[in-house]
Design goal:
Elements (H helix, E strand, L loop, with lengths): L2 E8 L2 E13 L5 E5 L5 E2 L6 H10 L7 H6 L7 H11 L17 H6 L11 H14 L12 H14 L5 E4 L5 E6 H11 L3 H8 L10 H8 L3 E6 L3 E6 L4 E6 L7 H11 L13 E5 L2 E8 L2
Antiparallel strand pairs: 1-2, 1-11, 2-3, 2-9, 4-6, 5-6, 7-8, 8-9, 10-11
Helix pairs in contact: 1-5, 1-6, 3-5, 6-7
Length: 299
């Protein structure tokens, strides 16, 4: 059953609790850390993006460097992100992007853009990569999000091959793309398989395109060179090292505020040195602008 993963304290009072599950794999593939219901299926949400990017690469999309990183990322809508997504589209019109219009997540950018747009949406890099893959493979572009589309079928096969298990459920993600449910253990196993692919290499080399300025995934990868970090909606997070350690986290209440601290704690339990990211091992709780408590991992 799910376990207590973190607690929120305010002025010495336990205000909230986060329950869920977390699993950590050693480079050998053996389970080195496990708490909660790690065999229960979860929806990886945006943790699916690195596998979707790998499928796009397999289909022939011309992705490398920052373009491959943004295909696997959830960017914050900064100008550099928009410029790269636009280049990825090539001659295709922006209107072909089927992700919903959105305000950029980067606060400075949000203050000056006039309205929400598809290209500013955090998933637009993935969608542009999917369109590029369809062009390269000669597949229809208008229906690229349909679960029966050849690209989405390739994504599903990629996920199943890397995770070593069959997809437990097919759902529609917030951006409109199919997302495939698998166990938390399977998700960690899939990340372990990803770490030696060009996708992981691009994410490690260009973390600013996986997230953006101040984004927690970007910050962790900058603090821990060689580590891939990717979060997803509803409290999901994956971490993987170039040596082959892999961690997958699911917080049941869907709140992501503790996921990074939980994931890093599990990674440390596997014997990996996370001390350069020690500031991310807890989250301060503020009162009147001052620190009065913390979000603390209790694994």
């Amino acid at each position: 059953m799910p376990a207590l993963l973190a607690e929120v304290t305010r002025s010495g009072f336990v205000e909230s609790l986060h329950h869920g599950s977390v699993v950590g794999l050693l480079p050998s593939g053996d389970v080195g850390f496990s708490v909660g219901a790690v065999q229960d299926p979860v929806l990886p949400r945006s943790c699916m993006k690195p596998f979707q990017a790998l499928a796009c690469l397999t289909a022939g999309a011309p992705l490398e460097g920052p373009a491959l990183a943004i295909a696997a990322g959830s960017h914050t809508g900064e100008d550099r992100h928009v410029e790269l997504v636009t280049r990825l589209l090539g001659e295709l019109p922006v209107e072909l992007l089927r992700c919903p219009p959105s305000w950029p997540e980067d606060e400075e950018t949000r203050q000056r853009v006039p309205k929400p747009s598809r290209v500013r949406m955090n998933c637009s890099g993935k969608h542009a990569a999917m369109l590029a893959a369809c062009v390269a493979a000669g597949w229809p572009v208008e229906t690229y999000l349909e679960p029966a589309h050849p690209l989405q079928q390739l994504v599903m096969r990629t996920v199943e091959e890397l995770s070593g298990e069959s997809v437990a459920h097919t759902a529609i993600d917030g951006c409109g793309a199919p997302v495939y449910g698998l166990s938390l253990h399977g998700l960690a196993r899939a990340m372990q398989g990803l770490v030696r692919t060009p996708v992981a290499e691009a994410m490690r080399a260009f973390p600013e395109y996986v997230g953006g300025t101040g984004h927690v995934n970007t910050v962790v990868m900058q603090q821990l060179p060689g580590v891939v970090a990717k979060g997803g909606a509803e409290g999901v997070l994956v971490l993987a090292t170039s040596a082959g350690h892999a961690v997958a986290v699911k917080v049941l209440d869907g709140n992501p505020r503790a996921t990074t601290a939980i994931g890093l704690t599990a990674l440390a339990a596997l014997g990996f040195d996370v001390s350069p990211a020690k500031e991310s091992l807890s989250v301060p709780v503020l009162g009147g602008g001052q620190v009065v408590g913390e979000v603390r991992v209790v694994l």
